[in-house]
Amino acid sequence: WGLSPRWGGWTLLVWVAAVTLLSAEGRRVRQPRCPVGCICTKDNALCENVQSVPHTFPSDVVSLSFVKSGFHEITGGSFVHTPALQLLLFTANSFDLIDEGAFLGLPHLEYLFIENNKIASISPFAFRGLKALIHLSLAYNNLETLPKDVFKGMDALTKVDLRGNNLICDCKLKWLVEWMHYTNATLDQIYCSGPPIHQGKKINDLLPNSFDCITAEFASYQSLKFESISVEAFIFGKDQYIVFPQPFAGTCSFLEWDHVEMTFRTFDTIESTSTVVCKPMVIDNHLFVIVAQLFGGSHIYKRDSSANKFIKIQDIDILKIRKPNDVETFMIDGESFFVIADSSKAGSTTVYKWNGNGFYSHQSLHPWYRDTDVEYLEISNKPHLILSSSSQRPVVYQWNRGQKKFDRRTDIPEMEDVFSVKHFGVQGDLFICLTRFIGDSKVMRWDGAMFKEVQTFPSRGSMVFQPVSIGKWQYAILGSDYSLTQVYQWDTKTDQFVQSQELNIQAPRAFSVVSIDDRVFLFASSFKGKTQIYEHLMIDLSN
User: Mean pLDDT of all residues in the chain?
Assistant: First the structure.
């Protein structure tokens, strides 16, 4: 049965030829064909009216185009099976979304044209991995913005085309203006579709400082487990303190900042009865506190630094101050005063003056008017008081320097039932916030002769409408016993307040700002719930 050498050689030759033929046939079978709906030439492919991105193309295709396709998005990893692509074009398609990682697996792609489609949204990482891309066109789509750093890592880019979109040049697009100023890529002239301040301008002409993108909000920071009717912040001995009158507990509660725990903690208390106001007053480095009570009279305490406690030094005339509702402190010509608004029928709002040893009654203002609030302010550099009353319109008093007393000057017309008045200034103009419990609270501006209405705010159980100034931000906070507290921010473009935030505070009565350790806090007293502390935080809208 042995074969001769000649027959053995022929057999081996036939076997090798058969294996080679089968191997070649196998390679031809595995070679991808041109997908249905596409036309393929030697190195190009054109797909029209396809419903999805095909996953198989001939391996020598380096240019791929999609026209009038029916798919609605380019999903992640759509082209991982065509790594040799150098040019990719989409035009007149119906998709409106480019997903994250849509073009992963294309290390050689140099030209990407996505034009005349309906794209409204692009993932921040849509172009991830396109390190060789030199030309990108997103022209004539429905783009209003682009996600920040969408071109990150595309260092080879030399040309970007964004024409024909409706780009809104707001803070979300500030990054693009910044990128345009340091990239080596060139962009055709493109125009802003909004906002009004930039509408019609060339994006190429904008600068990063063309955008005002820093805003702020109040974020809940700490909740205090007590009710309070007002709040006062003060500095004594270079330290910052806050004091709350607690009418139900019968105390003035003082807080200080814990620099280690980063919270506010108890510093001291003054025991009292039905406390409505605890007003601090620093005179010649001595701390005094006017404690106004509904029952048992009102008193003045002094901080004894050696004994490290508060000591009562004086009683306030109970015949004049029967039902105190507010206390204001102020200085005129180097002399220290405070005034107590009395809300009883038999009492009288009274000004007290420091004489070096104690406080004595300096002037009684109108009696029998049931005053609910007193505000000290300067109008045209002259000291004034505004008294709010449940029985008449707010009355304006002016300091008479010759008599060293306040004279009635005028009232604020058409403003009955005002509970309180608080003032603030913007760019040299004087404004006041007038609080009404039900109806409309108002903001008014001093025009040189009288206060005139600027803006109205619906009040639903409001006991406080307080202006708050923090850095360049001017706020007005309108409390409510029946709804959420509204925070308004001053808009310098319209010279009016605009709504910016809502706070959930039960029966708010007063607000006070404290700056400490480069942080700013807003204290909100609550008459029927927990007293709240908020931190004022900066927010960059361009991030």
Answer: 91
- DSSP for 66-101 reads EES---SEE-TTTTTT-TT-SEEEEES----EE-TT
CB atoms closer than 10 angstroms to residue 313? 14
- Rounded to whole angstroms, the maximal C-alpha distance in the chain is 145
Give which of 476, 484, 491 is closest to 532, Cα–Cα: 484
Give the span between the Cα atoms of 293 and 247, in whole angstroms. 8
The answer to whether residues 436 and 419 touch, using CB atoms and an 8 Å cutoff, is: yes
In angstroms, the CA 45 to CA 1 distance is 59
Task: Print burial letters for 95-132: b (CB count within 10 Å at least 16), e (below 16).
Answer: bebbbebbbbebeebbbbbbbbbebebbbebbbbbbee
**Length, in residues, of the chain:** 543
Q: What is the pLDDT of residues 239-268, one digit of tens each?
A: 999 999 999 999 999 999 999 999 999 999
Strands 263-271 and 251-258: antiparallel
CB atoms near residue 224 (< 10 Å): 20
Residue whose C-alpha is closest to residue 247's, from 233, 222, 230, 232: 230
Q: What is the mean pLDDT of residues 142-147?
A: 95
pLDDT tens string 499-540: 999 999 999 999 999 999 999 999 999 999 999 999 999 999
Whether 118 contacts 143, CB under 8 Å: no
Give yes or no for residue 24 having a pLDDT over 90: no
Residue pair 522/516 in contact by the 8 Å Cβ criterion: no
Number of C-beta neighbours around residue 367 at 10 A: 16
Reference 399, options 496, 452, 331, 468; nearest CA is 331
Rounded to an integer, what distance in angstroms lies between the CA atom of residue 302 and that of residue 290? Answer: 9
Going along the chain from its start, the domains and CATH numbers come out as 38-212 (3.80.10.10)
User: Residues 6 or more apart from 504 whose CB is under 8 A from it?
Assistant: 484, 485
pLDDT band at 346 (very low <50, low <70, confident <90, very high): confident
Please tell me the distance from the alpha carbon of residue 533 to that of residue 511, in angstroms, as a whole number: 10
- How many other CB atoms are found less than 10 A from the CB of residue 134? 15
Quick check: 16 pLDDT over 50? no
Q: What is the DSSP letter of 525?
A: E
